[in-house]
Amino acid sequence: MFKGSIVAIVTPFKKGVFDEKTYCELIEWHISQGTHGIVPCGTTGEASTLDFDEHFRVIEVAVKAVNKRIPVIAGTGANSTDEAVTLTQKAKKLGADGALLVTPYYNKPTQEGLYRHYKIVAEAVDLPIVLYNVPGRTAVNMLPSTVARLLEFKNIVAIKEATGDMKQASELLRLCGDRISVISGDDFTTLPLLALGGKGSISVTANVAPKESAGIFNAWEKGDMKKARELHYMLEPLNNAMFIETNPIPVKTALALMGKIEEEFRMPLCEMSAANRDKLKAVLKAYGFVK
To answer: Which of 16, 119, 129, 247 has minimal CB crowding within 10 Å?
Structure first.
C-alpha cells in the first residue's frame, strides 16, 4: 500500500508559530520532485513538542495541500495507548491515508505490552497503520516475532524499520515480508533493505534531496541496479550529515541554508554548534544545494 521515497517532513516555524504557507510550499516542491508520500508529525516533524491543536492542524494542512496526489501518513504515536487511539481517530477524520505509530517510548513496554498497544489501536480505528520501530529514540525494540503476531489485524499494513540492524531487518522480512511492507527508517539502509525485499523509505534526507531519494526507489523498480547503487553512494555523505546532531536539527538547518524555511526549532531543540554548521554547509556546497 505504501512504498517509495516517503518524506518525514519537517514542521516549519516562523516566530514560534507553525508556518502554514512555507509548509504548503515544501509539499508542492516534494510532489514536483517525485516524492512518493508525506509523513507529517513524525520525529523529524517535531511532533513531541506540538500541542494537540497544532498536531491536528499540521495534519489537516498536509492533507489539504497534498489533495490525494500522494499518500499522507500522519504520525499519531504516543506512549499512552489511549492517547494514540485519540490521535489516530483524529487523523482519520482529517483525511489522512494512514497513520504512523511509534512504539511507546520511555515507559519501555514488554513485547506483550507492545502487541496489546497496537492491537487496541488497530481495533479502535479503521485506518491503515504503519508500525514504527526506532529503539534509539524509544528505548524499546519491537522484535520481528511481535510484528508477525500483529499481522492478524488487516489494517496493520507496514512497518518503518529504524533499528539500523540489517540482521533484524532480514528476520523481519523473512517472517513478514509477504504480508506487510517493510520500509527503511534509516536512509543508509534504503538500498540494502530494497535488496532484501523492502518497499522504500520514510526518509530524513528526502527533505533536502527529494529527487535523488526518490530516484533510488525508481531505479530499483526499473531493475536499474547500477543507477540505484550510484544514487546510494552519492547520497551517503548527505545521509551522514543529517545526523551530526540530533534530528531534526541538521535537516532544518540545511533547509534554512537552502532558503526553504526559517531556522527555527522547538525547545529543547536548538541551533547547531558553529563547528557542525560549518561541516553541514560544506556538505551542502559539495552537492550544489547552497553556494
So the answer is: 16
